Amino acid sequence: MATPENSFLKSLFFGQIREDYIFPYPKPKAETAETVGMITDTIDKFGKDIVKSAVWDELAAMPIEVVEQMAAMGLTGIGVPEELGGLGLPQTGYARVMQQIASLDGSLAVTLGAHQSIGYKSLLLFGTDEQKKRFLPRLASGELIAAFCLTEPSSGSDAASIQTRAELSPDGKHYIITGNKLWITNGEIAKFLTVFAKTEVVENGEKKDKVTCFVIELPSEGVSHGAREHKLGIRASWTNAIHLDKVKVPVENIIGGVGYGFKVAMGILNHGRLGLAAGCVGVAKNAIKASIEHANEREQFKKKIGEFGMIKEKVARMVMNNYVAESMVYMTTHFIDRGDMDYSMESAAAKVFCSEMLWETVDENIQIWGGNGYMKEYPYERWLRDARINRIFEGTNEILRAFVALSGMQGPGQELAGLAKAIQHPLKGLGVVTEFATRKVKQNVFGETISKAHPRMKKLAGFLEEHTLELSQEVVTLLRRHGKEIHLKQFAQKRIADIVIDLYAMYCTLSRVTASIEEKGEAACEMEIAIAESFFMKANRRVRGNFKAMSRNEDELMKLIADKSYELGSYPYDVFKA
User: Fold this and answer.
1) What global pTM score does this model have?
2) 394 is catalytic
3) Taking every pair of C-alpha atoms in the chain, what is the biggest distance, in angstroms?
4) pLDDT of residue 452 exceeding 80
């Protein structure tokens, strides 16, 4: 089996490094950069004049007029083609704008992101020309605000288990949808819903239930919303249940075809995760700026606290991790903008890394600010509360780790299955066996090499060459050990995913710093080189630790502790009781 030709990370699972995908590090087109610059300047002015985050958070509400003003600025149609009334920005430009909006206010970013990152993304990715012309101009203008209706009371990460049903009317012109959707951002203000429901389909003469994607324009008889939810963070955003009671939806409002809703949902979320990840970068930059300002001003023991080593370490780690996160986001948006790549794993990896980077950053910012950071007088505790949702939104980080591991292992698994069949038929399968053996011998003896990294980065490139080979070897070992049962082995999945996420972070950083050195020279890139070298040292230790733990770990002990705890129903120990 050939290595996937259109996925950088899937190729790594075969031990192959597709340098042509990641070098040189992508630069936005001049036209895009100019447009984005004007938009971000306008957003900053808007933020100073209009955004009242502390008040909104306290009231758990923002004025609907704020959304209308953002729409008037064109910010409800960032990625919609210009001929349909939008700004027509590519994914890279969209991400940079969402980064700026998130730096203003978390609730505002979530509202706009739910509208266009996922709310009407089905139209952009899978809609027909007629559907696009019918809806996108009004969505881009903000006349219609969109919501994405997937989650249900009994269905969260397991999207295929939804209970909402759509039955075809006797005349074949409508579907009748009944069900309930939970935690829908923009549920209270939406006039356009992307809804996923089970429909009956016939495959090979057999009836099956499969997910289908519908769009519904409101008002529509049978659609209502619940009361606004009270949340830990992003309190000013609208979050409601959506109730669907025998809602008639014309067949013309099906997106992607009957029974193809799961594919549509996954395509939407793969895009949406990049807007979220970019938003994390924007908020982290705020937290870093606040930390540096305080470190330079606060005095203790007759010194600025920024002079102390533990504070320096925190600030350096925050800057380093955000540089890496930013590198991942804009490498991945470039993959999307190319239009010929499978970016699903890269998108998931970026979302996991960026959301966890932000959580660590806003937490450390509070630590640097000390008691003041904990007080509502300052915005820092709100930043922390707002940041928490990102590890849950658009696929929990646990689910995305499983997705990264299992998607990556799918190709090698198919190759091993094909190899097993070939061995059973030596004459017919000789070519398959020979090709596999030749490639593995070549990899093990010579390995893959990185030729496009700057010579200053040679040692760092060497780490990646070594780890990429070991990843492919470890994947084969796991697949031979567990076979089809690998989908149940989440301890191993997590380690593989963490390795891959770190490797992607390292590759993106290597490419970006190489581009900087080639453009500006080593002397001007002292800080970026230090960021790359320090991150590689930390990530290298994590990767090696995860490889080692594949065979030497405490997994069975951890399972025992968890199982016993489930049996007992609580923490069972008390030093004051026997």
Assistant:
1) 0.95
2) yes
3) 82
4) yes
